[in-house]
Amino acid sequence: MRNILQRELIGLEALVVNSSDPNLIGVSGRIIDETRGTLVIKGKKEKTYIIPKDTSIFKIISADGKEVEVDGIKLVARPEDRIKKRG
Questions:
Q1: Contact 41, 35 (CB under 8 A)
Q2: Do 39 and 10 touch, CB atoms closer than 8 A?
Q3: How many CA atoms lie within 13 A of 79 on its CB side?
Q4: Per-residue model confidence as pLDDT tens for the chain (87 residues)
Q5: List of domains in the chain
Q6: Separation CA 87–CA 80 (nearest Å)
Q7: Which of 60, 65, 71, 84 has its CA 20 to 30 A from that of 35?
């Protein structure tokens, strides 16, 4: 998977592998929205979770099944600005 930091995340599957909020660990589903500081994940039974990026670690799964683990602090930026960044 090309550099996840320069990729559109909406539509990808995600799993929260670690978080400062223990209730969020294990949350999984499809990313349906992204803001500067959060990922919005639609999980089981259509439940929606708003996950802070800066205090969470995510496993992102691409459409072809490739997985990458990323510290959410590296994702903190407006999506359009994050995608434009190089390196």
A1: no
A2: no
A3: 12
A4: 558 778 899 999 999 999 999 999 999 999 999 999 999 999 988 899 999 999 999 999 988 889 999 999 999 998 888 877 755
A5: 4-84 (2.30.30.210)
A6: 15
A7: 65
Written as six digits, the tokens of 57 are 């670690």
Q: Report residue 70 as tokens.
A: 């990323």
CA atoms within 13 A on the CB side of 60: 23
DSSP secondary structure string for all residues of 2-58: --GGGS--TTSEEEEEEESSGGGTT-EEEEEEE-SSEEEEE-GGG-EEEEESTTEEE
Tokens of 2: 């090309």
Burial of 84 (0-12, 13-18, 19+ CB in 10 A): exposed
Of 2, 4, 58, nearest to 30 by C-alpha is 58
